[in-house]
Sequence to fold (514 residues):
Amino acid sequence: MLPPGSAGRNGMQPTTFVQQLVALSGIQDGDTIRSVIAAVVAIAAVFLTAPQGRRRLAGGPALWLGLAVLPLAAATLFPKEAAAGDWAGLAARFFVLAALFQAVVLLGLVGVWERLMGPPSAILLDVLRWVAAAAAAAIILGEAGIEPGTLFAGSAVVTAAVGFALRDTLGNVFSGLALQAEQPFDIGDWIQYDANPAHIGRVVEVNWRATRVITLDEAFVVIPNGQLGLASIRNFSKPDLWSRRSLFVTTPYAVSPQLVQEVILDAVRGSFGVLDHPPPSVVTNAFTDRGVEHWVRVFTTEFDKRDRVDGMARDRIWFALARHGIEIPVATQQVRLSRLPTPVAERPEEAIDRRHEILRQVDLFGVLDEPARLRLAAAAREQTFAAGEPIIRQGGPGTSMFLIEQGRVTVSVADAGGANAELAELGPGEFFGEMSLLTGAARSATVTARSETRLLVIDKDIFRPCLEAEPRLAEALERVLLNRRAAQATAVSRGPAPSPEYDLLGRIRNFFAV
Fold:
Protein backbone atom coordinates (compact mmCIF):
# COMPACT_ATOMS: atom_id res chain seq x y z
CA MET A 1 0.00 0.00 0.00
CA LEU A 2 1.44 3.38 -1.03
CA PRO A 3 1.62 6.19 1.49
CA PRO A 4 -0.70 9.14 1.10
CA GLY A 5 0.34 11.63 -1.49
CA SER A 6 2.71 9.26 -3.34
CA ALA A 7 2.24 8.63 -7.06
CA GLY A 8 1.82 5.29 -8.81
CA ARG A 9 3.91 3.94 -11.62
CA ASN A 10 1.90 5.81 -14.23
CA GLY A 11 2.03 9.08 -12.35
CA MET A 12 -1.62 8.99 -11.37
CA GLN A 13 -2.90 9.21 -7.85
CA PRO A 14 -3.95 5.69 -6.71
CA THR A 15 -7.73 5.27 -6.73
CA THR A 16 -10.02 2.43 -5.89
CA PHE A 17 -11.47 0.15 -8.59
CA VAL A 18 -14.94 1.58 -8.08
CA GLN A 19 -13.67 5.13 -8.43
CA GLN A 20 -12.00 4.18 -11.71
CA LEU A 21 -15.26 2.64 -12.96
CA VAL A 22 -17.12 5.82 -12.06
CA ALA A 23 -14.51 8.00 -13.67
CA LEU A 24 -14.37 5.99 -16.89
CA SER A 25 -18.12 5.45 -17.35
CA GLY A 26 -19.50 8.73 -16.25
CA ILE A 27 -21.63 6.90 -13.72
CA GLN A 28 -21.79 10.08 -11.72
CA ASP A 29 -24.44 11.11 -14.23
CA GLY A 30 -27.70 11.53 -12.37
CA ASP A 31 -29.82 9.84 -15.08
CA THR A 32 -27.69 6.70 -15.02
CA ILE A 33 -27.76 6.47 -11.25
CA ARG A 34 -31.51 6.91 -11.23
CA SER A 35 -31.84 4.24 -13.92
CA VAL A 36 -29.83 1.79 -11.83
CA ILE A 37 -31.95 2.50 -8.77
CA ALA A 38 -35.17 2.20 -10.79
CA ALA A 39 -34.02 -1.10 -12.31
CA VAL A 40 -33.19 -2.56 -8.89
CA VAL A 41 -36.58 -1.46 -7.52
CA ALA A 42 -38.44 -2.87 -10.55
CA ILE A 43 -36.62 -6.22 -10.34
CA ALA A 44 -37.43 -6.46 -6.63
CA ALA A 45 -41.08 -5.60 -7.38
CA VAL A 46 -41.24 -8.37 -10.01
CA PHE A 47 -39.82 -10.88 -7.54
CA LEU A 48 -42.24 -9.87 -4.77
CA THR A 49 -45.43 -9.60 -6.86
CA ALA A 50 -44.99 -12.58 -9.21
CA PRO A 51 -47.12 -15.67 -8.42
CA GLN A 52 -45.43 -18.60 -6.72
CA GLY A 53 -43.29 -20.50 -9.17
CA ARG A 54 -42.88 -17.51 -11.51
CA ARG A 55 -40.37 -15.49 -9.47
CA ARG A 56 -37.55 -16.98 -11.50
CA LEU A 57 -38.56 -14.59 -14.31
CA ALA A 58 -36.95 -11.77 -12.31
CA GLY A 59 -33.61 -13.42 -13.04
CA GLY A 60 -33.70 -12.18 -16.68
CA PRO A 61 -33.55 -8.44 -16.00
CA ALA A 62 -31.23 -9.09 -13.04
CA LEU A 63 -28.79 -10.75 -15.46
CA TRP A 64 -28.96 -7.75 -17.81
CA LEU A 65 -28.24 -5.44 -14.88
CA GLY A 66 -25.28 -7.59 -13.87
CA LEU A 67 -23.88 -7.40 -17.42
CA ALA A 68 -23.54 -3.62 -16.99
CA VAL A 69 -20.38 -4.23 -14.98
CA LEU A 70 -18.59 -5.96 -17.87
CA PRO A 71 -17.97 -2.95 -20.18
CA LEU A 72 -16.92 -0.87 -17.17
CA ALA A 73 -14.47 -3.55 -16.12
CA ALA A 74 -13.16 -3.81 -19.69
CA ALA A 75 -12.59 -0.04 -19.82
CA THR A 76 -10.21 -0.20 -16.86
CA LEU A 77 -7.77 -2.05 -19.10
CA PHE A 78 -7.37 1.14 -21.17
CA PRO A 79 -7.40 3.96 -18.62
CA LYS A 80 -5.79 6.52 -21.00
CA GLU A 81 -8.28 5.91 -23.84
CA ALA A 82 -11.07 8.45 -23.46
CA ALA A 83 -13.06 6.84 -26.28
CA ALA A 84 -12.99 3.48 -24.46
CA GLY A 85 -14.48 5.12 -21.41
CA ASP A 86 -17.24 6.75 -23.46
CA TRP A 87 -18.23 3.51 -25.19
CA ALA A 88 -18.04 1.60 -21.91
CA GLY A 89 -20.41 4.09 -20.34
CA LEU A 90 -22.87 3.77 -23.23
CA ALA A 91 -22.72 -0.03 -23.13
CA ALA A 92 -23.24 -0.06 -19.37
CA ARG A 93 -26.17 2.33 -19.74
CA PHE A 94 -27.67 0.06 -22.43
CA PHE A 95 -27.62 -2.94 -20.08
CA VAL A 96 -29.12 -0.86 -17.26
CA LEU A 97 -31.94 0.43 -19.48
CA ALA A 98 -32.60 -3.05 -20.91
CA ALA A 99 -32.86 -4.43 -17.37
CA LEU A 100 -35.18 -1.58 -16.35
CA PHE A 101 -37.51 -1.91 -19.38
CA GLN A 102 -37.70 -5.69 -19.12
CA ALA A 103 -38.46 -5.48 -15.39
CA VAL A 104 -41.27 -3.01 -16.09
CA VAL A 105 -42.71 -5.35 -18.77
CA LEU A 106 -42.59 -8.32 -16.40
CA LEU A 107 -44.08 -6.28 -13.59
CA GLY A 108 -47.06 -5.41 -15.75
CA LEU A 109 -47.59 -8.83 -17.38
CA VAL A 110 -46.68 -11.18 -14.55
CA GLY A 111 -47.14 -9.16 -11.39
CA VAL A 112 -50.46 -7.59 -12.43
CA TRP A 113 -51.96 -9.13 -15.59
CA GLU A 114 -51.27 -12.76 -14.65
CA ARG A 115 -52.94 -12.39 -11.26
CA LEU A 116 -56.06 -10.93 -12.87
CA MET A 117 -56.36 -12.61 -16.29
CA GLY A 118 -54.17 -15.70 -16.13
CA PRO A 119 -50.59 -16.31 -17.31
CA PRO A 120 -49.55 -14.78 -20.65
CA SER A 121 -47.98 -17.01 -23.27
CA ALA A 122 -44.24 -17.66 -23.26
CA ILE A 123 -43.96 -16.31 -26.80
CA LEU A 124 -45.61 -13.01 -25.82
CA LEU A 125 -43.25 -12.62 -22.88
CA ASP A 126 -40.22 -13.28 -25.08
CA VAL A 127 -41.37 -10.81 -27.74
CA LEU A 128 -41.97 -8.01 -25.25
CA ARG A 129 -38.66 -8.60 -23.48
CA TRP A 130 -36.76 -8.35 -26.77
CA VAL A 131 -38.78 -5.26 -27.71
CA ALA A 132 -37.69 -3.73 -24.39
CA ALA A 133 -34.05 -4.53 -25.19
CA ALA A 134 -34.46 -3.03 -28.68
CA ALA A 135 -35.94 0.15 -27.16
CA ALA A 136 -32.93 0.46 -24.85
CA ALA A 137 -30.59 -0.01 -27.83
CA ALA A 138 -32.41 2.72 -29.80
CA ILE A 139 -32.05 5.17 -26.90
CA ILE A 140 -28.32 4.45 -26.52
CA LEU A 141 -27.73 4.80 -30.27
CA GLY A 142 -29.47 8.16 -30.17
CA GLU A 143 -27.28 9.29 -27.24
CA ALA A 144 -24.22 8.21 -29.25
CA GLY A 145 -25.34 10.38 -32.17
CA ILE A 146 -26.20 7.45 -34.42
CA GLU A 147 -29.55 7.39 -36.18
CA PRO A 148 -30.86 3.78 -35.89
CA GLY A 149 -32.42 3.98 -39.37
CA THR A 150 -29.04 4.56 -40.98
CA LEU A 151 -27.87 1.13 -39.86
CA PHE A 152 -30.31 -0.44 -42.29
CA ALA A 153 -29.76 2.01 -45.13
CA GLY A 154 -28.43 0.35 -48.26
CA SER A 155 -28.97 -3.11 -46.84
CA ALA A 156 -32.06 -4.00 -48.88
CA VAL A 157 -30.25 -6.75 -50.77
CA VAL A 158 -28.85 -8.27 -47.58
CA THR A 159 -32.25 -8.03 -45.88
CA ALA A 160 -33.96 -9.71 -48.84
CA ALA A 161 -31.40 -12.52 -48.90
CA VAL A 162 -31.70 -13.16 -45.18
CA GLY A 163 -35.49 -12.98 -45.36
CA PHE A 164 -35.58 -15.47 -48.24
CA ALA A 165 -33.30 -17.89 -46.40
CA LEU A 166 -35.35 -17.67 -43.20
CA ARG A 167 -38.80 -17.45 -44.78
CA ASP A 168 -39.98 -20.79 -43.32
CA THR A 169 -38.57 -20.04 -39.88
CA LEU A 170 -40.02 -16.54 -39.86
CA GLY A 171 -43.35 -17.92 -41.06
CA ASN A 172 -43.42 -20.35 -38.14
CA VAL A 173 -42.51 -17.55 -35.71
CA PHE A 174 -45.26 -15.21 -36.90
CA SER A 175 -47.75 -18.09 -37.02
CA GLY A 176 -46.82 -18.88 -33.42
CA LEU A 177 -47.48 -15.27 -32.49
CA ALA A 178 -50.86 -15.39 -34.25
CA LEU A 179 -51.77 -18.61 -32.44
CA GLN A 180 -50.87 -17.04 -29.12
CA ALA A 181 -52.91 -13.94 -29.91
CA GLU A 182 -56.02 -15.91 -30.95
CA GLN A 183 -55.49 -18.73 -28.41
CA PRO A 184 -57.47 -21.44 -30.25
CA PHE A 185 -56.11 -23.93 -27.71
CA ASP A 186 -54.23 -24.09 -24.41
CA ILE A 187 -51.72 -26.51 -22.96
CA GLY A 188 -53.56 -29.73 -22.14
CA ASP A 189 -56.30 -29.30 -24.77
CA TRP A 190 -57.16 -32.13 -27.19
CA ILE A 191 -57.06 -30.90 -30.79
CA GLN A 192 -57.33 -32.30 -34.31
CA TYR A 193 -54.51 -30.56 -36.14
CA ASP A 194 -55.39 -31.33 -39.78
CA ALA A 195 -58.14 -32.86 -41.91
CA ASN A 196 -57.20 -36.44 -40.99
CA PRO A 197 -59.56 -37.62 -38.18
CA ALA A 198 -56.79 -39.83 -36.83
CA HIS A 199 -54.48 -36.86 -36.24
CA ILE A 200 -55.65 -35.95 -32.74
CA GLY A 201 -53.41 -35.19 -29.79
CA ARG A 202 -53.05 -33.39 -26.46
CA VAL A 203 -51.07 -30.12 -26.59
CA VAL A 204 -48.00 -30.27 -24.34
CA GLU A 205 -45.92 -27.30 -25.56
CA VAL A 206 -46.12 -24.24 -27.81
CA ASN A 207 -42.85 -22.48 -28.67
CA TRP A 208 -41.53 -20.07 -31.29
CA ARG A 209 -41.21 -22.61 -34.08
CA ALA A 210 -43.62 -25.46 -33.42
CA THR A 211 -46.41 -26.95 -31.32
CA ARG A 212 -45.89 -30.35 -29.71
CA VAL A 213 -48.70 -32.85 -29.07
CA ILE A 214 -48.96 -36.40 -27.75
CA THR A 215 -51.43 -38.67 -29.54
CA LEU A 216 -53.51 -41.53 -28.12
CA ASP A 217 -50.81 -43.89 -29.38
CA GLU A 218 -48.37 -42.02 -27.09
CA ALA A 219 -46.57 -40.71 -30.17
CA PHE A 220 -44.78 -37.37 -29.83
CA VAL A 221 -45.70 -35.16 -32.82
CA VAL A 222 -44.04 -31.81 -33.65
CA ILE A 223 -46.21 -29.57 -35.85
CA PRO A 224 -44.64 -26.44 -37.39
CA ASN A 225 -46.61 -23.35 -36.40
CA GLY A 226 -46.80 -22.29 -40.05
CA GLN A 227 -48.62 -25.52 -40.94
CA LEU A 228 -50.87 -25.21 -37.88
CA GLY A 229 -51.71 -21.62 -38.72
CA LEU A 230 -53.11 -22.71 -42.10
CA ALA A 231 -55.03 -25.70 -40.72
CA SER A 232 -58.63 -25.84 -39.53
CA ILE A 233 -58.13 -26.69 -35.86
CA ARG A 234 -60.78 -28.64 -33.94
CA ASN A 235 -60.56 -28.22 -30.18
CA PHE A 236 -62.33 -30.99 -28.24
CA SER A 237 -61.69 -29.34 -24.85
CA LYS A 238 -63.40 -26.01 -25.55
CA PRO A 239 -65.73 -24.31 -24.86
CA ASP A 240 -66.60 -27.15 -22.42
CA LEU A 241 -64.54 -30.08 -21.21
CA TRP A 242 -67.05 -32.62 -22.52
CA SER A 243 -67.24 -33.72 -26.13
CA ARG A 244 -69.76 -35.76 -28.08
CA ARG A 245 -69.20 -39.30 -29.32
CA SER A 246 -71.29 -40.84 -32.10
CA LEU A 247 -72.22 -44.51 -32.44
CA PHE A 248 -74.32 -46.10 -35.18
CA VAL A 249 -76.54 -49.14 -34.64
CA THR A 250 -78.66 -50.93 -37.25
CA THR A 251 -81.82 -52.86 -36.28
CA PRO A 252 -84.44 -54.76 -38.34
CA TYR A 253 -87.33 -52.97 -40.01
CA ALA A 254 -89.77 -55.20 -38.13
CA VAL A 255 -88.87 -53.60 -34.78
CA SER A 256 -90.30 -50.21 -33.80
CA PRO A 257 -87.61 -47.49 -33.91
CA GLN A 258 -89.00 -45.89 -30.77
CA LEU A 259 -88.70 -49.17 -28.88
CA VAL A 260 -85.11 -49.52 -30.04
CA GLN A 261 -84.32 -45.96 -28.93
CA GLU A 262 -85.74 -46.60 -25.45
CA VAL A 263 -83.71 -49.81 -25.11
CA ILE A 264 -80.49 -48.10 -26.25
CA LEU A 265 -80.93 -45.08 -23.97
CA ASP A 266 -81.52 -47.31 -20.96
CA ALA A 267 -78.47 -49.41 -21.91
CA VAL A 268 -75.93 -46.58 -22.24
CA ARG A 269 -77.01 -44.81 -19.06
CA GLY A 270 -74.28 -45.26 -16.48
CA SER A 271 -71.81 -46.80 -18.95
CA PHE A 272 -68.15 -45.92 -18.45
CA GLY A 273 -67.47 -42.25 -19.22
CA VAL A 274 -71.03 -41.47 -20.38
CA LEU A 275 -72.35 -38.28 -18.77
CA ASP A 276 -75.90 -37.76 -17.54
CA HIS A 277 -75.66 -34.04 -18.45
CA PRO A 278 -75.70 -33.39 -21.35
CA PRO A 279 -77.94 -36.47 -21.65
CA PRO A 280 -77.44 -39.20 -24.27
CA SER A 281 -79.80 -39.16 -27.24
CA VAL A 282 -80.80 -41.48 -30.08
CA VAL A 283 -82.37 -40.53 -33.41
CA THR A 284 -83.32 -42.48 -36.51
CA ASN A 285 -80.51 -41.64 -38.89
CA ALA A 286 -81.20 -43.54 -42.13
CA PHE A 287 -83.06 -46.41 -43.79
CA THR A 288 -80.44 -48.70 -45.28
CA ASP A 289 -80.44 -52.02 -47.08
CA ARG A 290 -79.63 -53.72 -43.76
CA GLY A 291 -82.34 -52.02 -41.72
CA VAL A 292 -83.00 -48.89 -39.67
CA GLU A 293 -79.80 -47.03 -38.74
CA HIS A 294 -79.88 -45.31 -35.33
CA TRP A 295 -77.49 -42.50 -34.42
CA VAL A 296 -76.47 -42.74 -30.74
CA ARG A 297 -74.95 -39.53 -29.27
CA VAL A 298 -73.23 -39.68 -25.89
CA PHE A 299 -71.12 -37.06 -24.11
CA THR A 300 -67.93 -37.69 -22.15
CA THR A 301 -65.09 -35.90 -20.43
CA GLU A 302 -62.86 -38.98 -20.78
CA PHE A 303 -61.57 -37.89 -24.19
CA ASP A 304 -58.23 -39.63 -23.71
CA LYS A 305 -60.18 -42.88 -23.13
CA ARG A 306 -62.75 -42.31 -25.86
CA ASP A 307 -62.12 -45.70 -27.49
CA ARG A 308 -63.02 -47.42 -24.22
CA VAL A 309 -66.08 -45.16 -23.81
CA ASP A 310 -67.30 -46.15 -27.29
CA GLY A 311 -66.51 -49.83 -26.84
CA MET A 312 -68.24 -50.26 -23.49
CA ALA A 313 -71.31 -48.36 -24.75
CA ARG A 314 -71.48 -50.72 -27.74
CA ASP A 315 -71.23 -53.72 -25.38
CA ARG A 316 -74.14 -52.39 -23.32
CA ILE A 317 -76.22 -51.84 -26.48
CA TRP A 318 -75.54 -55.36 -27.78
CA PHE A 319 -76.57 -57.03 -24.52
CA ALA A 320 -79.67 -54.85 -24.19
CA LEU A 321 -80.83 -55.60 -27.74
CA ALA A 322 -80.19 -59.30 -27.22
CA ARG A 323 -82.30 -59.32 -24.03
CA HIS A 324 -85.21 -57.83 -25.95
CA GLY A 325 -84.85 -60.30 -28.81
CA ILE A 326 -83.67 -57.64 -31.28
CA GLU A 327 -81.03 -58.97 -33.64
CA ILE A 328 -78.53 -56.76 -35.41
CA PRO A 329 -79.03 -57.64 -39.10
CA VAL A 330 -76.13 -58.66 -41.27
CA ALA A 331 -75.48 -57.11 -44.66
CA THR A 332 -77.83 -58.42 -47.31
CA GLN A 333 -74.90 -58.60 -49.77
CA GLN A 334 -73.08 -61.15 -47.62
CA VAL A 335 -71.84 -64.12 -49.68
CA ARG A 336 -70.72 -67.38 -48.09
CA LEU A 337 -67.88 -69.00 -50.02
CA SER A 338 -67.91 -72.17 -47.93
CA ARG A 339 -70.52 -74.07 -45.99
CA LEU A 340 -69.83 -73.68 -42.31
CA PRO A 341 -71.03 -76.27 -39.80
CA THR A 342 -74.32 -75.20 -38.30
CA PRO A 343 -74.25 -75.19 -34.50
CA VAL A 344 -76.79 -77.51 -32.94
CA ALA A 345 -79.46 -75.42 -31.25
CA GLU A 346 -80.75 -76.41 -27.85
CA ARG A 347 -84.07 -78.19 -28.19
CA PRO A 348 -87.03 -76.77 -26.23
CA GLU A 349 -87.24 -79.90 -24.11
CA GLU A 350 -83.59 -79.60 -23.14
CA ALA A 351 -84.01 -75.92 -22.24
CA ILE A 352 -86.99 -76.74 -20.00
CA ASP A 353 -85.07 -79.53 -18.29
CA ARG A 354 -82.11 -77.22 -17.67
CA ARG A 355 -84.33 -74.53 -16.16
CA HIS A 356 -86.20 -77.12 -14.12
CA GLU A 357 -82.92 -78.32 -12.64
CA ILE A 358 -82.10 -74.74 -11.61
CA LEU A 359 -85.50 -74.28 -9.95
CA ARG A 360 -85.21 -77.61 -8.18
CA GLN A 361 -81.98 -76.51 -6.48
CA VAL A 362 -83.59 -73.34 -5.05
CA ASP A 363 -85.10 -73.87 -1.59
CA LEU A 364 -87.71 -71.23 -2.30
CA PHE A 365 -89.42 -73.56 -4.78
CA GLY A 366 -88.97 -76.74 -2.75
CA VAL A 367 -92.64 -76.79 -1.78
CA LEU A 368 -93.69 -77.04 -5.44
CA ASP A 369 -94.33 -80.44 -6.90
CA GLU A 370 -92.62 -81.68 -10.05
CA PRO A 371 -95.36 -80.69 -12.56
CA ALA A 372 -95.60 -77.17 -11.11
CA ARG A 373 -91.84 -76.65 -11.40
CA LEU A 374 -91.89 -77.92 -14.97
CA ARG A 375 -94.66 -75.47 -15.89
CA LEU A 376 -92.69 -72.64 -14.27
CA ALA A 377 -89.50 -73.68 -16.11
CA ALA A 378 -91.35 -73.73 -19.44
CA ALA A 379 -92.81 -70.25 -18.91
CA ALA A 380 -89.67 -68.54 -17.55
CA ARG A 381 -87.41 -66.56 -19.87
CA GLU A 382 -83.64 -65.96 -19.96
CA GLN A 383 -81.66 -62.72 -20.16
CA THR A 384 -77.94 -61.95 -20.34
CA PHE A 385 -76.24 -58.84 -18.90
CA ALA A 386 -72.75 -57.45 -19.50
CA ALA A 387 -70.20 -56.97 -16.74
CA GLY A 388 -70.85 -53.72 -14.89
CA GLU A 389 -74.37 -53.36 -16.26
CA PRO A 390 -77.15 -52.67 -13.73
CA ILE A 391 -79.88 -55.32 -13.78
CA ILE A 392 -82.32 -53.53 -11.48
CA ARG A 393 -82.02 -50.11 -9.85
CA GLN A 394 -83.05 -49.14 -6.35
CA GLY A 395 -86.42 -47.38 -6.36
CA GLY A 396 -87.37 -48.63 -9.81
CA PRO A 397 -90.61 -50.51 -10.56
CA GLY A 398 -90.71 -54.23 -11.17
CA THR A 399 -92.90 -57.35 -11.06
CA SER A 400 -90.30 -60.06 -11.66
CA MET A 401 -87.57 -61.96 -9.83
CA PHE A 402 -84.28 -63.34 -11.11
CA LEU A 403 -82.37 -66.62 -10.64
CA ILE A 404 -78.68 -66.64 -11.52
CA GLU A 405 -77.78 -69.35 -14.02
CA GLN A 406 -74.24 -68.20 -14.76
CA GLY A 407 -72.03 -65.34 -13.54
CA ARG A 408 -72.09 -63.21 -10.40
CA VAL A 409 -73.87 -60.04 -9.26
CA THR A 410 -73.44 -57.50 -6.44
CA VAL A 411 -76.32 -56.17 -4.34
CA SER A 412 -76.01 -52.63 -3.00
CA VAL A 413 -78.29 -50.02 -1.44
CA ALA A 414 -78.03 -46.25 -0.94
CA ASP A 415 -78.74 -44.88 2.53
CA ALA A 416 -80.42 -41.55 3.31
CA GLY A 417 -77.12 -39.72 2.79
CA GLY A 418 -76.64 -41.17 -0.68
CA ALA A 419 -73.71 -43.42 0.30
CA ASN A 420 -73.77 -46.90 -1.25
CA ALA A 421 -73.44 -49.98 0.94
CA GLU A 422 -72.72 -53.34 -0.66
CA LEU A 423 -74.90 -56.00 0.91
CA ALA A 424 -73.86 -59.17 -0.81
CA GLU A 425 -72.38 -60.89 -3.83
CA LEU A 426 -74.60 -63.56 -5.36
CA GLY A 427 -73.65 -66.45 -7.64
CA PRO A 428 -75.23 -69.32 -9.57
CA GLY A 429 -78.31 -70.81 -7.89
CA GLU A 430 -79.12 -67.65 -5.90
CA PHE A 431 -81.96 -65.24 -6.58
CA PHE A 432 -83.04 -61.61 -6.07
CA GLY A 433 -85.96 -59.28 -6.86
CA GLU A 434 -88.50 -61.50 -5.07
CA MET A 435 -90.09 -58.60 -3.12
CA SER A 436 -91.18 -56.79 -6.29
CA LEU A 437 -92.45 -60.03 -7.80
CA LEU A 438 -94.56 -60.95 -4.78
CA THR A 439 -95.82 -57.56 -3.56
CA GLY A 440 -95.32 -55.15 -6.46
CA ALA A 441 -93.09 -52.97 -4.24
CA ALA A 442 -90.38 -50.77 -5.76
CA ARG A 443 -86.94 -52.30 -6.02
CA SER A 444 -85.27 -52.05 -2.61
CA ALA A 445 -81.69 -52.44 -3.88
CA THR A 446 -79.50 -52.05 -6.94
CA VAL A 447 -78.16 -55.26 -8.47
CA THR A 448 -75.23 -55.02 -10.89
CA ALA A 449 -73.63 -57.75 -12.99
CA ARG A 450 -70.10 -58.38 -11.76
CA SER A 451 -69.28 -60.44 -14.83
CA GLU A 452 -71.23 -61.54 -17.90
CA THR A 453 -74.34 -62.97 -16.27
CA ARG A 454 -77.20 -65.13 -17.57
CA LEU A 455 -80.43 -64.95 -15.55
CA LEU A 456 -83.68 -66.87 -15.42
CA VAL A 457 -86.53 -64.34 -15.17
CA ILE A 458 -89.84 -65.22 -13.50
CA ASP A 459 -92.66 -62.70 -14.02
CA LYS A 460 -95.82 -62.19 -11.98
CA ASP A 461 -98.11 -63.60 -14.66
CA ILE A 462 -96.32 -66.95 -14.83
CA PHE A 463 -95.93 -67.18 -11.05
CA ARG A 464 -99.63 -66.70 -10.24
CA PRO A 465 -100.63 -70.29 -11.20
CA CYS A 466 -97.96 -71.63 -8.80
CA LEU A 467 -99.47 -69.74 -5.86
CA GLU A 468 -102.94 -70.82 -6.79
CA ALA A 469 -101.82 -74.48 -7.00
CA GLU A 470 -99.72 -74.47 -3.81
CA PRO A 471 -100.90 -72.09 -1.02
CA ARG A 472 -97.94 -73.11 1.22
CA LEU A 473 -95.58 -71.36 -1.21
CA ALA A 474 -96.77 -67.94 -0.01
CA GLU A 475 -95.86 -68.79 3.60
CA ALA A 476 -92.39 -70.00 2.58
CA LEU A 477 -91.85 -66.85 0.59
CA GLU A 478 -92.93 -64.73 3.57
CA ARG A 479 -90.21 -66.25 5.78
CA VAL A 480 -87.50 -65.70 3.14
CA LEU A 481 -88.54 -62.09 2.52
CA LEU A 482 -88.60 -61.20 6.22
CA ASN A 483 -85.12 -62.64 6.75
CA ARG A 484 -83.73 -60.78 3.76
CA ARG A 485 -85.28 -57.44 4.75
CA ALA A 486 -83.90 -57.76 8.27
CA ALA A 487 -80.37 -58.46 6.94
CA GLN A 488 -80.59 -55.55 4.49
CA ALA A 489 -81.76 -53.06 7.13
CA THR A 490 -78.97 -54.11 9.47
CA ALA A 491 -76.31 -53.69 6.76
CA VAL A 492 -77.50 -50.22 5.79
CA SER A 493 -78.12 -48.74 9.25
CA ARG A 494 -75.26 -50.60 10.97
CA GLY A 495 -77.68 -51.21 13.86
CA PRO A 496 -80.41 -53.60 14.92
CA ALA A 497 -82.97 -54.61 12.32
CA PRO A 498 -86.44 -53.06 12.48
CA SER A 499 -89.44 -55.10 13.46
CA PRO A 500 -90.73 -57.30 10.60
CA GLU A 501 -93.89 -56.64 8.67
CA TYR A 502 -96.34 -59.27 9.92
CA ASP A 503 -98.86 -58.44 7.18
CA LEU A 504 -96.45 -59.51 4.43
CA LEU A 505 -98.37 -62.72 3.77
CA GLY A 506 -101.54 -60.71 3.31
CA ARG A 507 -99.78 -58.37 0.89
CA ILE A 508 -98.62 -61.31 -1.23
CA ARG A 509 -102.12 -62.79 -1.38
CA ASN A 510 -103.70 -59.43 -2.16
CA PHE A 511 -101.18 -58.68 -4.92
CA PHE A 512 -101.87 -61.99 -6.64
CA ALA A 513 -105.58 -62.01 -5.65
CA VAL A 514 -105.35 -65.57 -4.28
